[in-house]
Fold this protein.
Amino acid sequence: MFTTTTYFIKAQTPGINVHKLLDLYKRELNTQGIKNITEDGNVLYFVNDDSEILFNRFDRRFSDFSEGKIGIEDNDTEFLAYMEATPTNFMSGLTAKVSFPVYFTALRNDIERELQGL
């Protein structure tokens, strides 16, 4: 199982809530070609189609995972965003450990800029 986390400081993104963050992460999953997404409370569950894994391996960040979840936890001063996912194979797991945390943080930065209207 692969895991990574990041956070949003509430003072830097006033007016944001868990569901808005989930909508933005869901949009990114859709952009990345993941069609099987379900929402349960504060968690998005996703399953990658086998053809997406095979044919889009190098241009889609989530193609290294067969399934996973992205959750948002609401704390006093921040929203914690986390992802837990199952790599498609051993090499995907190694690739994910090196590059995916950087992407997940960059995605957070993009979402934060969008929320701030920059």
The chain has a mean pLDDT of 86. Strands lie at 2-9, 36-40, 43-47, 65-74, 78-87. Helices lie at 18-31, 50-55, 90-116. The chain has one domain: 2-116.
